[in-house]
Amino acid sequence: MNPIALQIGQVTIYWYGILIVASVLVGAAVSIVQASKRAQDPEHVWNALLLCLILGIVGARIYHVFSISQGGAIGWPYYREHPNEAFKIWKGGLGLIGAIIGGSLGTIVYARLAKLPILTWLDISSYGFLIAQVIGRWGNYINQELYGPPTKLPWGISIDYGHRIIPFHNLQIYPLETRFHPVFLYESLWCLLGFILLWWLSARWRDRLLAGDVFWLTLIWYGVGRFALEYLRPDAWMWGPIAAAQVFCALFCLGSVVALVLQRRAHTDALTQTHTDKRVDERTDEPASMTESQDIP
Question: Mean pLDDT throughout 17-46?
Fold first, then answer.
C-alpha cells in the first residue's frame, strides 16, 4: 500500500499521519464519554490533550533515541554521533513505552494543576489510550514495520525488500514470497479486546471499582500482551537476554498489582473505621437506663 495518501504540490499527507490523528480524535471522544459517566467536565479532555500529546511524544522520542535495535534500525549509536538528528521527529522513531510514561505524566500534571481527581482522570485516559492503539497500530502495516519472524499462517504478511530488517534481507534464505507475523495486528487486537473488557467491567461493576482501578488494569493488560509480543520482535532493544520493553512491562504489571492491593486494603480499612465510628456514635446517643436516670430513694 502506498504510504502517501495525498500529495498537492510540496504538501505530502501520509496515511500514517492520518491514522495517528484519527486515533487521537477517537481516543479523545471515548475519554469524553467516560468523563461524562464519571460526572467530570468533558472539556478537560480537550484541555489536557495537548499536554498529554507533548509529553507523550517527548517520552516516545527519548525512548527511541536511547534504544539499540537488533534489526539494524537507527538508535543510540547513530544519535550519539549525530545529536541534532534526535530532534527530527518527522523522520520517524517513537517508542510506545515512552509514550505511555509521558502521556500518563501529562494527565497527572494537568489533573493536579486543574485540581481534578488524579486517579479518576487516569482511568478516563486509559480508554482513550487503548482505542487509540487499536487504530494507530495500522500505520505500522502501511509502513511495513513492526512485523515478526516468518510464518506460514494464512494471515502472514509480505514485506518488500526495502523494508526488510536484519536478517530477513537475505533473499536466499527469505525469498520475496516469504510471509511474516503481523505483530502490529496482534497488538491492535489485544488492545481492542482489553478496551471491550474494561468498558464492560466499568459498566457491570461500577459500584465496586475504585478510582484508579481501570488505569492499573490497563497497565497490566497492555503489559502482559506487550511482554508476550516482544518474543516476536526481531528488532527488539535487548538488555542482555531480555528485551527492554519486557522489563518496563514487568514493572508496569508489578507496580499496578501493588497499587491495586494497597488501594483495596486502604479502602477496606477506611470502611472498617467508618463502621466502628458509627457504632461508637450510636452507643453514645443511646438514652440512659432507667436505673441510671432515676434517683434511688
Answer: 94
